[in-house]
Amino acid sequence: PMLDSLIQTLEDPHARHAAFVHAPIVLCLLAPVAAIALAITRFRHRPTGLLLIAVLLAASLGAGLAAGAGEEAYERVEESTPPLTTLEHDALEKHEELGEGGWMWPAGAAVLAALTLVPVPKLRLVAGGLTVAACLGVAGWAAVAGHTGGTLVYEHGLGVPARQAPIAGQTPPPREDHDD
Predict the structure, then answer these.
(1) Which residues contact 3 (CB under 8 A, 6 or more apart)?
(2) Rounded distance, CA 80 to CA 100, Å?
(3) Which of 43, 120, 122, 151 places its Cα 20 to 30 Å from the Cα of 6?
(4) Residue 137 burial (CB < 10 Å; 0-12/13-18/19+)?
């Protein structure tokens, strides 16, 4: 049953995009923490540098997988009935533009982080400063891309399966009123 559920998720572009997109967002948001930790060591702590590179490369791979699934999901949403409103279409376009080629942002930051491993102090410091700035930019990009995706799902209801009617004969449980 679990394998069947996984296969079903991977076959549906919307579900696949949702499954792939969250890990790179988290990794992109964690990258500045690792970059600042590396900066505290004046970019000398090799294990932290290697960890940062691994985080950024994993984020890049995840962003690429999410974008691929997102492209398929985008096509399905564009062809949906009823047609998209102008507001929905614009929101979808904005998210698609942010995701397209998004794998390059963390990959570029990883290249800068790799330069901090070169044992030339001036290069290490300059590359390190650029790495911190790049990681902050990557985190900002991931936050905006994630927010636009959330807007599509939670405000416009796009890319989610249609809610099905309850099975005949089943009644929903009574609603509890909460005073908190």
Answers:
(1) none
(2) 21
(3) 151
(4) middle
pLDDT tier, 33 (very low <50, low <70, confident <90, very high otherwise): very high
In sequence order, the 6+-apart residues with CB closer than 8 A to the CB of 146 are 21, 25
Reported as half-sphere exposure (CB side, CA atoms, 13 A), residue 136 has a value of: 7
Are 148 and 88 a contacting pair, CB within 8 Å?
no
For residue 152, which amino acid is it? L
Helix, strand, coil distribution of the chain in percent, nearest 5: 75, 0, 25
- Per-residue pLDDT reduced to its tens digit, 6-17: 888 888 888 888
Asked if residues 49 and 116 have their Cβ atoms less than 8 Å apart, the reply is: yes
Query: How is residue 173 annotated by DSSP?
Result: P
43 neighbors 127 (Cβ within 8 angstroms): yes
Q: Is 85 exposed, middle or buried (0-12, 13-18, 19+ CB in 10 A)?
A: exposed
User: Tokens 């636009």 appear where?
Assistant: 148
pTM for this model (two decimals): 0.84
Is the Cβ–Cβ distance between 107 and 56 less than 8 Å?
yes
- State both tokens at 57: 């490369």
Residue type for position 20: F
